[in-house]
Specification:
single chain; 177 residues; mainly alpha; Ferritin; 5 helices; binds fe (ii) ion
């Protein structure tokens, strides 16, 4: 009567695996936020609307804050703030840059810039939402609070961009065609 052998892997609590995952995803978003600090000024330069320029200026300052907040998070976790290249965001930025450069200067290009920025925002909203869920399960309260602050700001930025697009940009882009 041979019993089915159940091979158990070396046991490590699931929380340790989740803590590793949290750290990995933090490293990736840390790269992404730092990359945005250097990329956003280029989008601002290419934009035509003063309202959009002001929104991007505000967003650059906020992104710098997000970088600093991530450093606080690493420190709260007793981890070194290491950046690991985020292939997902790099792809979004590359595609955004191509779309923007192919659009006619003026309202159409502004609409393309808003679209590129919103793709980034939605990536960040998903990333921070996931990180917050991990931090909650791991009972990392300080980390969770910091992540939720950033998540709220990302959502707000997305709404501001939608409002700019809705109020006049998309309409003027059509008018220009
Ligand atoms: Fe951000």
């Amino acid at each position: 009567m041979a019993k089915t052998s159940t091979t158990k892997k070396v046991t490590r609590p699931a929380s340790a695996g989740l803590a590793d995952l949290l750290k990995q995803r933090l490293q990736t978003i840390y790269w992404a936020e730092s990359e945005l600090v250097s990329t956003l000024p280029q989008l601002k330069e290419q934009s035509n609307s003063q309202e959009l320029q002001a929104a991007i200026t505000e967003h650059i300052a906020q992104t710098q804050m997000h970088v600093t907040r991530l450093e606080e998070i690493f420190s709260a976790l007793n981890e070194k703030a290491d950046a690991v290249k985020c292939e997902g965001l790099q792809g979004i930025l590359k595609e955004g840059a191509a779309t923007v450069s192919q659009s006619e200067e003026g309202p159409v290009r502004d609409a393309a810039i808003i679209g590129a920025c919103q793709l980034v925002e939605h990536y960040e909203i998903a990333a921070y939402g996931t990180l917050a869920a991990y931090a909650k399960v791991l009972n990392e309260k300080q980390v969770l609070d910091l992540l939720l602050k950033t998540l709220t700001e990302e959502k707000k930025s997305d709404q501001i961009l939608s409002a700019i697009a809705d109020t006049h940009l998309n309409a003027s882009a059509v008018g220009e065609a």
